[in-house]
Description:
The protein folds into two domains: about 5-90 and about 240-270, Leucine Dehydrogenase, chain A, domain 1 (Rossmann fold); about 90-235, Rossmann fold. Helices cover about 40% and strands about 15% of the residues. It contains ten helices and ten strands. It has helices at about 5-15, 35-40, 65-70, 90-105, 120-130, 145-155, 170-175, 220-225, 235-250, 255-270; strands at about 45-50, 65, 75-80, 85-90, 110-115, 135-140, 160-165, 180-185, 205-210, 230. The strands form two sheets. Strands 7-6-5-8-9-10 form a six-stranded parallel beta sheet, sandwiched between helices. A four-stranded mixed beta sheet has the order 1-3-4-2. Helix 4 packs across helix 5. The two termini are about 20 Å apart. The relative contact order is 0.14.
Amino acid sequence: MEHTLSPAMHNFAFERLGIPAIYLPFAVEPKHLEAALGSLIPLGFLGVNLTLPHKEAALKWVQTISPEVEQIGAINTVVVRQGERMGYNTDVEGFLASLQNDLGWKPKGKKALVLGAGGAARAVIYALAEKRAQSIFVGNRTEVRARHLVQEFRRHFPAVAMEWFALSEESIQSMAKQVDLIVQTTSIGMNGGSLKISWREIPKTTSVIDLVYRPLDTPFVKGARSAGLQATGGLGMLLYQGAASFKLWTGREMPITTVHKRLLQELSRSTS
Length: 272
């Protein structure tokens, strides 16, 4: 939980807008998820965000879900309203907003490579397919997980070509040469690691996004930029999905520009 910037983001926004609320991080073991979500109503919570490994498991412990959650199969935001827990996935909105605002990239008719097959990957695939990407390739170290994910989404989006493959240096390199967008959804960049790609062999028209936001520029992002590709980390997605969650909880718009500056300050402070 130490890596998350969500408390800084939301608490700054609460303060700026004069909202009497506080955002706190809680480390909840999977076996205690039901009890944790069950406590939201009696303790007066507006809601919570969920991160790994709870995004898919939480489906069992909410009363209603939004349309995108029904297809994605993962929740990142729970809203408490009228005595019920409602599940949403604002990762979709956050990802699409980051593509548009940070990369100037639109999915329609494009080819995308998604690395990883967890909860974040599910939101990414849904977002790309919903916006009519031409094709989506999904790679994961556990091939069966990628295969099941692709088979599931093919049923929802039969017009979008989808394929899966097992991650290896050779397969990543081969697939990366064929797409317009590369999305890194695993947590590997948090520890200074990176999936290996020979970036000089990738077309300069390819855009790259790493959903990891700490560090601000992961080795994956740095490698892509060093070869002249347009690339961004996950701070934009964090900001925009957070703004969507904030509005669901409070009915208010998050002050995006000032919150973004605050997040950059927080990242600078933590790395200095």
